């Protein structure tokens, strides 16, 4: 039987299935105030699920924003887990720290690094991280993947937000630079040996891939 497209009512029901509490709502309000497009609740819930399944102790986030995605990630991570989050906007990171404080998250559990992702990521430790989440400059997504593959431990997961990019990626007529960069990333991940990919239709699309573990010997 052919599948029919999900209707808006069902999509909204799925997006709101895991409700946001006042702390997340406040972080999202901060994002709106400074013009940051935070990940939706459906994508956030997926991030929390991934962090929980991985029992993540070390996570890298590219694009701190005001802490919406960071809150979701931290809530799924182990109690001793540390989130390393990178953003060029120091004011956004200040607002994110307010969000984390509102949630009672200990300061030592979050390492905020101000700077361009492609300047910061090369300084992080190879094979140390359980999860890398990217929500930064879309044109740099392929370069983020290169860094993620180095940073992730075997069995770790990389995730990219906005993988459908406002319904533009699936439309071949859309050829602007950002859409093209995301579309090329989607194809690249699907064709890369050693990755197990999935494109989840939550929010604006969440592209995920597991780094395959190859036993030694």
What does this 3D model show about the protein?
40% of the residues lie in helices and 20% in strands. It is an alpha/beta fold. It has a seven-stranded mixed beta sheet with strand order 3-2-1-4-5-7-6, with helices on both faces. α3 packs parallel to α4 (68-76).
Distance between the termini: 45 Å
**Helical content band:** 25-40%
Beta-strand share of residues = 15-25%
Shape: globular
Low-confidence stretches: none
Radius of gyration: 17 Å
Structural class: alpha/beta
Q: Largest sheet, if any?
A: 7 strands, mixed
What's the helix-strand series? HHHEHEHEHEHEHEE
Quick check: average pLDDT?
95
Widest sheet, order of strands:
3-2-1-4-5-7-6
- Count of discrete alpha- or pi-helical segments spanning 4 or more residues: 8
By DSSP, the count of extended strands is: 7
What attributes characterize this protein structure?
alpha/beta, 8 helices, globular
Which secondary structure elements does this structure contain, and how are they paired or packed?
Elements: H1 8-15, H2 22-34, H3 41-53, E1 58-62, H4 68-76, E2 82-87, H5 90-102, E3 110-114, H6 117-120, E4 129-134, H7 141-151, E5 152-161, H8 177-191, E6 195-200, E7 206-211
Parallel strand pairs: 1-2, 1-4, 2-3, 4-5
Antiparallel strand pairs: 5-7, 6-7
In short:
By secondary structure, the chain is of the alpha/beta class. It has helices spanning 8-15, 22-34, 41-53, 68-76, 90-102, 117-120, 141-151, 177-191; strands spanning 58-62, 82-87, 110-114, 129-134, 152-161, 195-200, 206-211. The longest helix is centred in the C-terminal third of the chain and has 15 residues, at 177-191.
């Amino acid at each position: 039987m052919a599948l029919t497209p999900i209707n808006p009512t069902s999509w909204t029901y799925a997006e709101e299935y895991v409700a946001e509490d006042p702390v997340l709502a406040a972080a999202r309000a901060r994002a709106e105030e400074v013009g940051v497009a935070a990940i939706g609740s459906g994508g956030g819930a997926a991030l929390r699920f991934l962090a929980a399944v991985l029992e993540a102790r070390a996570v890298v986030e590219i694009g701190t924003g005001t802490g919406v995605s960071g809150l979701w990630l931290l809530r799924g991570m182990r109690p001793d887990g540390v989130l390393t989050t990178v953003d060029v906007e120091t004011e956004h990171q200040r607002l994110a720290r307010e969000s984390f404080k509102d949630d009672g998250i200990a300061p030592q559990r979050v390492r905020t690094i101000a700077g361009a992702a492609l300047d910061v990521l090369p300084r992080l430790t190879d094979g140390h991280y359980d999860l890398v989440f990217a929500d930064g400059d879309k044109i740099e997504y392929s370069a983020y993947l290169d860094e993620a593959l180095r940073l992730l431990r075997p069995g770790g997961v990389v995730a990219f937000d906005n993988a459908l990019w406002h319904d533009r990626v699936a439309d071949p007529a859309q050829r602007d630079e950002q859409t093209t960069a995301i579309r090329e990333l989607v194809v690249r991940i699907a064709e890369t040996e050693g990755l197990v990919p999935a494109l989840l239709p939550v929010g604006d699309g969440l592209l995920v891939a597991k780094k395959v573990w190859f036993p030694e010997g």
